[in-house]
Write a structure and sequence with these properties.
Blueprint lengths: L3 H30 L5 H47 L5 H37 L3 H16 L2 H13 L10 H4 L22 H25 L5 H10 L3 H5 L1 H4 L4 H5 L1 H26 L5 H26 L1 H21 L7 H29 L4 H22 L5 H28 L10 H19 L1
């Protein structure tokens, strides 16, 4: 019989799977569905910029007042509004709903990470296991289920839009500009950018809205409110507003978090590169936009399976070995992409890169999330808010230079950020190896939080 904590992990995972089946599918289609005046890409930029602003202030406020469960439900509602905005896309619908999604995005992910970390520590205390091992396992299970959303979301779009008979005609002249051979800023995708019939668009977006609402119902009905006692105590103590409001910034005083910024930002850079640059400059350019869904399905399947594998393998190999594997994999792919000239006759190669990228991303996602939970057990809400803030900054920077930098330079930037990550991450890992951070068990959770709150009240009163 499965434990209550494990059941909750499954509920959270299935909820996120349903929600991001919708959002992930919409995200990968924005540049083609809403290509007019770059409206789709602009909406993605607004989303991640809003997530940065949200990460600065909202997660600790919402999580401590609403609790993890209802913060997740509220965040999911923000994502559904974006799907609704895509029914009749325009600047007046996409931009406001992008802001709403961004504001709810950071609390959603911070609450999820906090919930899994609390569940992992609670289960470890009951079984007498090491907290970091159970947390790693729970994050591995979560990302195993969650990352498969890329498969189902893109499968839905492929099946629905597959009814459109407008197939790309790739010319030999266009193939010359694919990959890093040319600047990659003026790729002509011919008929591949033609918007599908409006009826098909409404069908797809309607299905996405449905699975988004299903995610909210799953979490609201089946997820336990495990931090209800802490939330009630927080509201009863009426902690000074500035303590909670500035929690994200206050954690930046910890040198470990500052040292992890390159690693966290690289997560945003590498995800945006695959979903944006690789799909546009390699897949769409050489095969046509109808292949994008299949390529991203390959990425999602690889990511999902490897997330489960590495979540369990981490207890035997440790985080450092897995991070090294991810770095070597991404480094090899970046170098290969600099020299590869994509051609339709090399169909299998188009799927090799997303499969390897998915394996590496599985490590970046599972191990970085788990690392934050292990390093900052007393400040989980603020720590995961910082995680989303710096990861989103990586997304925003990548989107910002996407339209005016050549692909070759984008690969150099990605490589540079990876090298900085390889230098800075081991510093934190070495310190943690020498002086392990003690986990917070279920029975001591409140006492640790009360101690931290008492220490910070003086600071708040001074500022007020």
């Amino acid at each position: 019989m499965i434990s209550r904590n494990f059941k909750n992990v499954l509920v959270v995972s299935v909820g996120f799977l349903s929600l991001f089946t919708a959002y992930g599918g919409l995200q990968s289609l924005q540049s083609s569905l809403n290509a007019e005046q770059g409206m789709g890409v602009a909406s993605l930029s607004v989303i991640y910029a809003s997530i940065i602003v949200s990460s600065m202030f909202l997660p600790p406020l919402l999580i401590k007042n609403l609790g993890c469960k209802w913060t997740i439900v509220a965040g999911m509602a923000c994502y559904v509004t974006y799907s609704i905005g895509n029914l009749y896309p325009g600047w007046y619908t996409l931009m406001p709903t992008s802001v709403i999604l961004g504001l709810g995005g950071s609390p959603l992910w911070s609450a999820k990470c906090t919930y899994l970390t609390i569940s992992g520590n609670n289960q470890a205390a009951k079984e007498g296991k090491k907290g970091s091992d159970v947390i790693n396992q729970y994050f591995g299970i979560f990302f195993f289920i969650f990352q498969s959303s890329a498969v189902w979301g893109n499968l839905m779009s492929s099946l629905i839009f597959g009814q459109d008979t407008n197939i790309a005609n790739i010319t030999a002249e266009q193939l010359q500009s694919c990959g890093a051979a040319d600047c990659g800023l003026n790729i002509s995708v011919n008929s591949t950018t033609t918007r599908p019939a409006q009826k098909l668009v409404w069908t797809l977006v309607g299905a996405y809205i449905g699975v988004g609402l299903l995610a909210m119902v799953i979490v609201a009905v089946f997820l336990d409110n495990i931090d209800q006692q802490q939330t009630s105590q927080f509201r009863g103590n009426r902690e000074p507003f500035c303590h909670t409001f500035l929690a994200t910034f206050r954690l930046l005083k910890d040198w470990r978090l500052v040292t992890l910024i390159p690693l966290t930002m690289y997560s945003g850079f590498e995800q945006s590169f695959l979903s944006g640059e690789y799909t546009k400059n390699y897949v769409t350019c050489a095969l046509g936009i109808h292949f994008v869904g299949f390529v991203m399905m390959c990425f999602g399947a690889s990511n999902s399976l490897c997330s489960f594998l590495f979540g369990r393998l981490a207890r035997y190999t440790g985080r450092a070995a897995l991070f090294f594997l991810a770095a070597v994999t991404n480094f090899s792919c970046i170098i290969a992409l600099m020299f590869w000239r994509p051609h339709p006759n090399q169909l299998a190669v188009f799927f090799v890169f997303p499969a390897l990228w998915g394996m590496a991303d599985a490590i970046w996602q599972t191990q970085t999330n788990a690392l934050y939970g292990v390093l900052f057990p007393q400040e989980k809400e603020a720590a995961f808010a910082n995680y989303r803030m710096w990861e989103s900054l990586g997304f925003v920077i990548a989107f910002a230079y996407s339209t005016f930098l050549c692909l070759e330079y984008k690969l150099y930037i990605l490589l540079a950020v990876l090298l900085v990550t390889v230098i800075t991450y081991p510093i934190v890992e070495y310190r943690e190896y020498k002086n392990p951070t003690p986990p917070i068990e279920e029975r001591t959770y409140l006492s640790h939080k009360e101690t931290a709150q008492t220490e910070d009240k003086t600071v708040c009163q001074t500022k007020m």
